[in-house]
Amino acid sequence: MLQTSYLVVGKGHIGLATAVYLSAQGYTVYLFSRRSSFVPQTRTLHSIGPISPGSYPVAACSNNLDELATLNGGQLPLNVLICCRGQDIEPYAKILAKYIHSQMNVLVFCASRFAGWVFCKVLRRVGITEEQLPAVGDVNNTPFVSRINSEDQVRISALTNKFFVAAQNRTLTNRIVRTYQAVFNNLWPAASVLEINLNKVNDIIHLPLLLVSLARWESGEDYNIYHKAGPRTVGLINHLDCDRMAVGKALGVINLIDIKSHYQIAYGTTGPSLDEHMQQLGSYSSTTLCNPHHRYLVEDLPYGCFPLQVLARLAGVETPFLDSCITIGDKFLDIPLPWSAEFLELDLPQLSQEPQVNPSTSNFSQLNDHHRCPTENS
């Protein structure tokens, strides 16, 4: 049966943008957030950007999942999109567990590494059996660039050309793609969960940009971290990316893409240097920070870079730049790094259990020449 209703979990900029994008295509959207009040009747969300501009209805917005299920005949929609930070994955998994079953298709929009893996892990811990697990797709990127303007207003400034997804196995990955390509025609399958999580790069980009401007950030200055990023700063991003690439190669990930290739695939940028690619991202011209608890640090360090370091230790790979960034960022933030090796319980054979895609047929085959460690001046 064709499913025409969706549950969007999370009311940040990606959650609002996703709700708008689905509603603009005529689908019924329910919006759940732990921080929202219950609105049992139709609510209007406003999109002011170049993508899907206009005002669109949401069937209901609530912080009470039972109320939303009641409006949908006592069950949640089969298609659930989780749009949140890494620190919200565990509580959302526990909240959703009451309604979880094997026919559901859960797409996780989260920059944190292993967000989908943690979601399934928490479900198992609260009693969901392997047979009851839904298809849980983790993505390497979001389908669009967006910015929240107010509680009910969002700006979608650009669509991603391609983003990739992998679920627990090839069969479930294909099911996720079939389900969601109707609304996201820029969604493509990846070979494995390990590939997806090694090809997440938000933390690789954001952390160096923040570390070189901590004084401005700590003072509460409203500034754009991408603006006037010099060659040495871009060089730090390149070196950090080199560590990520080394981890992926040690773990045998074939479809590993560097930062420049990421920009090329996702946004169609061109040029021989990372600096040239970054300068072409006009959609990030309004990315300003004035909050000392911004996700670029409080999410990307503990839930992005730190799990990558966990992988590096498991692979026996030295990551000097990654280690340095984590040490500095951790001392500055003084917050826990919760997704440790013990917590994640990473089963590397299971993470990469799907056969690797043949490079001649892979979506990444055109990028084979880029699979090298970039230099500061490349």
Give an account of the 3D structure.
The protein has 378 residues and is an alpha/beta fold. Helices cover 39% and strands 17% of the residues. The protein contains 16 helices and 14 strands. It has helices at 13-24, 65-71, 86-96, 115-125, 170-180, 193-198, 202-211, 214-218, 231-250, 259-267, 274-279, 295-298, 301-315, 320-333, 341-344, 348-351; strands at 5-9, 28-32, 43-47, 54-58, 60-62, 79-83, 105-109, 135-139, 144-150, 153-159, 163-166, 187-189, 223-224, 288-289. It has an eight-stranded mixed beta sheet with strand order 5-2-1-6-7-8-11-12, with helices on both faces. β3 (43-47) and β4 form a beta hairpin. α13 (301-315) runs antiparallel to α14 (320-333). The longest helix has 20 residues, at 231-250. The radius of gyration is 20 Å and the shape is globular. The chain starts with a strand and ends in a 27-residue tail after the last helix.
For the structure shown, list the relevant keywords.
378 residues, alpha/beta, eight-stranded mixed β-sheet, four-stranded mixed β-sheet, 16 helices, disordered C terminus
The global form is globular
Spans of 5+ residues with little confidence (pLDDT < 50)? 355-372, 374-378
Distance between the termini: 51 Å
Structural class: alpha/beta
Brief summary:
It is built from 16 helices and 14 strands. With 378 residues, it is an alpha/beta fold.
Give the topology, please:
Blueprint: E1 5-9, H1 13-24, E2 28-32, E3 43-47, E4 54-58, E5 60-62, H2 65-71, E6 79-83, H3 86-96, E7 105-109, H4 115-125, E8 135-139, E9 144-150, E10 153-159, E11 163-166, H5 170-180, E12 187-189, H6 193-198, H7 202-211, H8 214-218, E13 223-224, H9 231-250, H10 259-267, H11 274-279, E14 288-289, H12 295-298, H13 301-315, H14 320-333, H15 341-344, H16 348-351
Parallel strand pairs: 1-2, 1-6, 2-5, 3-10, 6-7, 7-8, 11-12
Antiparallel strand pairs: 3-4, 8-11, 9-10, 13-14
Helix pairs in contact: 3-4, 7-9, 9-13, 9-14, 13-14
